[in-house]
Amino acid sequence: MFVSESLGLSKHLGETLEERKILREALISHSFFSDVIEAVRFDKKFGEIEEGTVVAKTINGVRIVRGFPKIKRALVLNPTLKKHFENEVAVEEKMNGYNVRIARFGKNLYAMTRRGIICPYTTEKARELINPEFFKDHSDLVLCCEAVGEESPYVPKSMYGVEGLDFFVFDIREERTNRPLPVEEKLRLCEEYGLRHATYFGTYDVDVAHDEIKDIISDLAGKGREGVVIKDPEMKLSPLKYTTSQTNAEDLKYAFRFFNDYGKDFMFSRIVREGFQSFEFNEGDKEFRERCLRLGMAILKPMVESIREVALGGKVSEKLRLRFGSLDVMNLFFEQWKRSKVDFEITDIKKDGKDIVVFVNKTMRNTTDKIKAHLEGIPW
């Protein structure tokens, strides 16, 4: 099998990975993916191989795009920054979208989600928006981006002024080794090739960085933005992330709207973050009460709304607006959703110039069924 050979694994181990469903299909064969003969993804971490790693047999040989490593979180800025970093830290905005890696296989660009799915929708957008000259000059590099905008199939957000979907580079990495380029080199390449990138706030001495970051966080919170990623400027140490209270509340709102699909995973960690942030920011009674109210409303209000919706005979669903450049890509994307067991209904299709705009209700079946069962008298 090409995966075993390319990764230096025994044939038996390769078969074991398939049997344990660690290796899964990364794409649906289609002319839109004409440069790829076959591709698989690691659905779970395996040894040193990250979850989301893609191994693709292409027309130019086997390519390996490593999964994006998980970033740990700082619960308090001081003394975590001094303990984790050495001299300086670079601070960038953590944007609220979905994680995408973009690489070139053969003649075309391919966009991979965090889990390693080569997404038709995201790939079409990457081919429209990313300067292909970057990959002609740097074929061994991967653009790690946050895909954000109102027409996102996964995290639709309007806060960045992106009506459709766009990509903001936060890392550039070597394809096989996953080694990230230093921050300044990444920014230089983005400037050279006209690539949008996450906001860079500056580089600060580690001894004073916590005060600078607190000010940045306060400003971002006022704008409803997510938070920051704190990096070693040379990218030799792993980054840390730190989020605003407002984004914790927004996450909880989303999770408890669909509480039986996401609630359990979201609740505990975000409440712990709130406790540490409240302590470090030395909140007075008024600020603390506002935080408590924000959290309580984020948990209960969307859940009650979902219960009411089902009680009235509806389904708990997320409404999406997606824009496709071709009918083929639209059909391919929704076929991929069907294979991934996504429960959805297309409610309307419109033409907008050359584009096809599709309105979709993405039903959260577990939450809908759970609410319905309890309303009919089934105990918890």
TrEMBL record:
Task: Tell me the ranges covered by the RNA ligase domain, including all copies.
Answer: 88-243
Answer yes or no on keyword tRNA-binding: no
Disulfide bond as a keyword of this entry, yes or no, is: no
Keywords, comma-separated and alphabetical: Ligase
| Residue span, RNA ligase Pab1020 C-terminal domain | 254-377
Recorded hits in CDD domains, A to Z, give:
Adenylation_RNA_ligase (cd07894)
A GO molecular function annotation here is:
ligase activity
**Cross-referenced SUPFAM superfamilies:** DNA ligase/mRNA capping enzyme, catalytic domain (SSF56091)
Q: What protein does this entry describe?
A: RNA ligase
